[in-house]
Amino acid sequence: MSMVRDRAPTRITAAATATFAVVGLGLIAALLLGAWPLIGEPRPLANLLGGLWDPLRGAYGLAPFFVGTVVVTATAMALTLPFSLAVAVVLSRPLPDGVRLGATRVLTVLTAVPSVIFGWWGLLAVVPWVRARFGGAGFSLLAAGLVLAIMVTPTLSLLFYQALRSVPRAFRDGSAALGATPDQTLVRMELPCALPLLIQAVLIAVARAVGETMAVQMVIGGQTVLPTGLTSPGATLTTQILTDMSIFPPGTRGHAVLDVMALVLMVGMYLLVRLAERWVAMP
Amino acid sequence: MVLHLVALVLTGVAAALFALIIVSLVRQGLPSLTWRFLVGSPNERAGDNGIAPELMNTAFLIGVTWLVTAPLGLLVAIFLREYGFRRRSAVVRPLNHLRATLLSAPTVVVALVVYRVAVGWWHWPVSLATGCLTLAVINWPFMVTVAEQALASVPQSYREASLGLGATRFATAVRVVIPAALSPLIEGWGLAVARLAGESAALVITAGVNVSRHFSLWGPGETLAVHIWYIRTEGVSVNRDAEAAATGVILLLLIAAVVWSSARVARMLSGGEPR
Amino acid sequence: MTWLMGLIVALACLSSSGVLSVRSQHLTMVGATSALPYLRRAVAGWEAEHPGYTVSVSGGGSVAGLIEVSRGRADIGVSDVRPNQVLTGKVDLQSLALGRLPILFIAHLAVGVRNLSRAQLQRLLMGQSTNWKAVGGTHTPVIVMTRPLASGSLEIVQHEVLRGGRVTPRAIVALSNGAMLAAVQETPGALGFVESGNIPAKVAVLAVDGQVFHPHNAGQWPFYAVPRLYWRPQASASVKSLALYLATREYRPQYGIFDRVS
């Protein structure tokens, strides 16, 4: 039987998969283990949901960072959506093969540009622009949102492009044959057809935006009180982990709260994954 | 046509923005981009800085990580895809959720955990080896994703034909499915290299921020991305901005070269049809 | 399932026995980033005299330096905060000072102020004066820049200048001296502090109570961090040799690390 000959390789692949699961679950278990001591603090939940961050005195209010993460991500997505969709639409029109190929490769290279480079550009151009336009320090949620928007645009464009390409050619031709203009075809037929994939693409981009650390940290200002507006400085969960991980290395009392922040991020990512799965499973 | 015109304009704006970023980076870095810079060693006070050891460390870290995680990722993908589990089965689904969640885990967090295990428990020094381990953990989920997507692109009929001829599942995967999936695999592997090359926060903790005179697996391993971080953090060189930009240009060129050539090879293998 | 169990057992063995231990000739230093430029050069010098040894320097900050060395995860910790029981446990660390690293107060060039009293500086940093006009400068809102909690220089500023008070929570947080310098250079109205041994360009270096900083009188400047090297009492001879080497190079002042009187 073929099963007999297959046994050794099966075991190897199964072992690799098991190791993968152990490493992944181990990572999450390590975070859980690290976060555990926080249970011993007085009123842990109220403390974590509060707005006061003074970790040296035991105040672990994460509200400013939740707000920061949500606002920065929402700003970035709102800014990047029209541009990414535009790039994807242009790419999915009949273009010379060479142009399309070149453009997708350039986009692919841009998705891999290190975040320090975007952060550096943010300091050079975005922060001064925000300062000149809105006053204040320039380091702000808005600056972080702008930098993030630029960072995720190549990724989101490529994902949108793949989504639009999944619409069968015949649908498009049929629509044209019925006398629809290209605009009508795009809005009434292509976008609705590709909607599940488009939404999945947005969720992937959101995950990337939420997880971004270095570039955001460089321009957001790192202020740990609740932000008062889009142009006020703030911090996100990831940037605050980066800022304060040096005062709370593993094994110190305050490290637990960093692990909680990481866990919250992981749970958020998991929810995004499940949400994306739901959308694709629907049609 | 209005919408299409708007799309064209927005695309133009986005392209111009990216061109601006790249051009300003290159303009700032160009004066420092000399041959000496590429082959020299770091020497901030003397004014003739170089990045040769950083280049070597980057290549070593990425190379080893790649060699470890590419086969591991492929094995996991084969197990999940080629052994006839249903997509929503109790084995595949949780593993897929785990993979997708890990894929977006902040790298700093991964680094802190690896640091605790490798440096704390095993008493490894902060070194290239520890850096490799960190990058491997960061990269494994990505490699599994790449391999899974590549395997998924192979039509089911290929497998049925092979299995029908009496081949085992593993033989089918190795002899039929992987060769057919080689093109997207190579493209994804190229992207993985690029992703690794840009990693800095995790390596600052695990691989160190200096270079050694004696190259060793257990010695310090500052990479190009970490070097940019260092220069901008505490660097004392007179023209540190230009050196950071020049290092950035080199890093960008490396990434572009890898992504571009892997995409080319992928296209050659797929017989020139656009994917 | 057997695979999974085997793996867990193997991992447990690895974690407990330290089979993979490789420490003898490869030393690790963790700690304050402010001394990094000096350490990068000096460590290379020590390696040249000790073939076969490699020394890794990792970032992480002063607090991490103390914790990692006391728990045996690093051989030498670099720190400019004082060790205490909470950080180091019962380990009685030995140490050597590298020297004094001056902390300079810097402001954006256009604030119109070059000299502040200690009280004025205190009010500005704590957010009680919010406009440079209040201290005789131009009509510009003050934007305070500070460093993360783990920073040794923040601790010294809060201790020496604010007398236990704290920098305003509305301050912008810059992760490093480099980031601080760049931010103050470019932000109108900015006030911050950096560890530096020379006069940084494109910012106003403030005199405090009439005392002006200059590299020639760096030994007398009243605000300074003292980065120290820490190691465990049972450390090997090579660790001690490295620490001694690092603490005695005569080119330290080139990197802003001065002796008491120079």
From TrEMBL, chain A:
Coarse class of the protein's main subcellular location: membrane
Pfam (any one): BPD_transp_1
Residue span(s) of domain ABC transmembrane type-1: 66-276
Transmembrane annotation, as ranges: 12-39, 59-91, 103-127, 139-161, 254-273
Subcellular location: Cell membrane
A GO CC term assigned to this protein in UniProt: plasma membrane
CDD domains hit by this protein: TM_PBP2
Coiled-coil region: none
InterPro entries linked: MetI-like (IPR000515), MetI-like_sf (IPR035906), Phosphate_Transport_Permease (IPR051124)
Top-rank taxon, per record: Bacteria
PANTHER family: PHOSPHATE TRANSPORT SYSTEM PERMEASE PROTEIN PST, PHOSPHATE TRANSPORT SYSTEM PERMEASE PROTEIN PSTC
Membership in a protein family: Belongs to the binding-protein-dependent transport system permease family. CysTW subfamily.
Stated name of the protein: Phosphate ABC transporter permease
UniProt organism field: Sulfobacillus acidophilus
From TrEMBL, chain B:
Membrane topology, from the record: Multi-pass membrane protein
UniProt keyword Transmembrane, yes or no: yes
One term under GO cellular component: plasma membrane
Superkingdom classification of source: Bacteria
Predominant subcellular localization, coarse grouping: membrane
Classification via Gene3D superfamilies: MetI-like
Limits of the ABC transmembrane type-1 domain: 55-262
UniProt keyword list: Membrane, Transmembrane, Transmembrane helix, Transport
InterPro entries: MetI-like, MetI-like_sf
Subcellular location: Cell membrane; Membrane
Residue stretches spanning the membrane: 59-80, 100-118, 244-266
Keyword Transmembrane: yes
Family: Belongs to the binding-protein-dependent transport system permease family.
Name of the protein described by the UniProt record: Phosphate ABC transporter permease
Record organism: Sulfobacillus acidophilus
From TrEMBL, chain C:
Keyword Lipoprotein: yes
InterPro entries: PBP_domain, Phosphate_ABC_transporter
Membrane topology, as annotated: Lipid-anchor
Gene Ontology CC entries for this record: plasma membrane
Gene Ontology biological-process entries: phosphate ion transport
Ranges where the PBP domain occurs: 25-201
Gene3D superfamilies: Periplasmic binding protein-like II
Keyword Lipoprotein: yes
Signal peptide: 1-21
Keywords, comma-separated and alphabetical: Lipoprotein, Palmitate, Phosphate transport, Signal, Transport
Subcellular location: Cell membrane
Pfam families assigned: PBP_like_2
Family, as annotated: Belongs to the PstS family.
Subunit structure: The complex is composed of two ATP-binding proteins (PstB), two transmembrane proteins (PstC and PstA) and a solute-binding protein (PstS).
Function: Part of the ABC transporter complex PstSACB involved in phosphate import.
Protein name (database record): Phosphate ABC transporter substrate-binding protein
Organism, as annotated: Sulfobacillus acidophilus
